[in-house]
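Ticket #4471: structure output looks truncated?

Reporter: J.K.
Steps to reproduce: submitted the chain below (567 residues) through the standard prediction queue, then opened the result file.
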Amino acid sequence: MKVKRRDVPENHALDNVVADPFLRDILLSRGINDPKDLDPSIKNMLHYRDLKDITIASKTMADAIEAHEHIRIMGDYDVDGMTGTALGVLCLRAFKHDNVSFHVPSRYDNGYGLSVKMVEKAIADGVDLIVTVDNGISCHEAVSFAKEHGLKVVITDHHEPTAILPDAIAIVDPKRVDCAFKSKNLCGVGVLFYVLIATRAELIARGYFKDLNSAPAMGQFLDLVAIGTVGDVVTFDANNRRLVKAGLMRMHQGSAQLGVRALSEVSRVNLENITTSNIAFDLCPRLNAAGRIMISDNPSVKCLLSSDGNDAMELARRLDMINRRRGDYERVYLAEAREEAKVNHGKSSVVVFKPNWLCGVAGLIASRLKDSFGTPCFVFAGDGEEITGSARSVPGFPLASNLSQIDKEYPGLLLRFGGHAMAAGATIKKTDIQKFREIFDEKAQQILAEGGEEIGIESDGELPPSHFCLDFARALEYFGPWGQGYPEPVFDGIYEIEDIKPLGTGRSLRFKLANSKIAFYALRFRANAREKTLLPGMQVHVAYALAVDRYYQNERLAIIIKAIEPI
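Returned output as attached by the reporter:
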C-alpha cells in the first residue's frame, strides 16, 4: 500500500475564513486559496458570457423557437449525454416549444457521436436544427453533410477539439483554445445548461415571455446537471462543485425530476440524503446499463423525461432489471475472463479477449480483473476484424501516457485509443491481440518495476483524536462535494485490530481499530480475499474517510476504510 502524505502550501489566504487549522490544511492542499471558491452558492457560478460562440448559439436556438422549427437534441449513450439530452428536451418544453425530439445512438449501431446516418434520419423527419450534447466536436463529416442539406447544427461539447473545427453555426466547448471561460471542466450537460441559460436570456430580451416571471426557472433542471457531472467524472473545480451542490440540494428538497425520483426509489436511495456516492454507484449504473448491453431501445432518457409518476416507475424498474441483466453478463464474462487470465496473464498485466463478450461490459470486467490480480488489465471484445478493448489500471501505471508511448514505438498497432491514467480504451486488429498482449505486459513490467509513475493513496495525515466526531464529518461535507480533481479527504494511521465481524452476506467487514490515542469502528465495503484473512491482534496500516451516516432523522459518524493491510 503506497501512501503519500499531501503537501500543504504556505498560504494564509484562508486564515480568517476557516478556523480549524487541520481543515484549513485539507483545503489548501487541494488548491483552494481564494475564499470565494469555498462559497457553494449557485449565485456565484461563472457567467455564460465568456463561452465562445454562446451568443450565436443562443440566438440560433431562440430563432428556431420563435419560428417553431423542429429542433432535435442529439446526445450520447453515457450518463452525461443522456442527462444532457433530457435537459435539452425538458428545457425547450419549458420554453413552450413542443416541436422538439431527441436521438441517442446505440453503442452497437451508430456508435459514438453525430453520424451521417443520424443526419439522414433527421432530414427524413423534417428536422431544422440539430443541437448536439456531449459530442460533435470531432464530427466533421456529419456536420458538413447536414449543412449541405440545409440543416443548421449547434455543437455543445466538452471534449478536446481538433485543430480544425467542424463547419457548424456555433461550437460551444470550453476546451476551445479561443474560449475565455475560466472553467475548462464542464461536462456535456453542463455546457448545454449554460447554452440554455443564454437562450432564456435571449428570449427574455426579445419579449418572448409575457413577463419575466413567466420565464421558467433554470434551477429546476439542476438535478440532471448534478447527475451528469458526477457520472462523467469531470474535475470538481469550484464551478462544478456549485452546480453539483445546487443539484443535490434540490434533490434533498424533493424537487427532482419524476424519473430521478423513480430511479432513486428502485435504487433504495433516500433523496433527502442523496450523496455524490449514491449518484455514482446507484443511479449512474442503472442509467448506463441500457447502453452497455444490446437492447431494442434505451429507456434511460424516456425515464428522465417522464411526466407521469407511474410511467417513470415502470421505466425505472425496467432500467433496474436491465442493470441486473448487465450484472448477469458481467458475472458470466468475469468467470470466463478469470480463467482466460490465469492462462494468458504475464507477471505485470492481464490482457484477455473473447469475441462473444459485449464491448459495453468490457470496462466493468477490466475493473474486476484489476482488483483481483492487482495489475493493469485490458479486456477486448468483438467478432469483427477489429476488436475494441477497455482497460483499468493500478497506481503507478498511467494508461493514457503508456498507450501513447506504445503508439509511438509500434505505429499502426493501435488503430484508435484514448482515455485517462486509470481508465482507457483502444481498438486493434484481432490478429494483433497476442502482439499487443506481449507489448503491453513488457511496458507494464518495465514501469512498475521502476516503482511506478504515480502515488497509490494520497493521505491528509493521521486524523487527530479530537476530529473523530460528527461535527468534523459535517464540516467536510459542507466544503464538498468531493470528486475528481478535488479528492475526498483520506486519513491514514497504524492501528491494532481489536475485533472484526462480517456484515450481511460477508462481502463487507466491520472492524474495531485502536491505538494508544483512539478506538473506533470502521467499515470496509467489498473486502477482497486478503482483507478477509485479517485477524484480531494484527497491527494494520489503514487509510480511511469520514462520512455522515443518516438514518431517518438521525445522524452519526461513519468511518469508511479505503485500504487496509497488515504491518
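Triage note (M.O.): checked the attachment and the full C-alpha cell line is present. The first strand starts at residue 3 and ends at 5.
Status: closed, working as intended.
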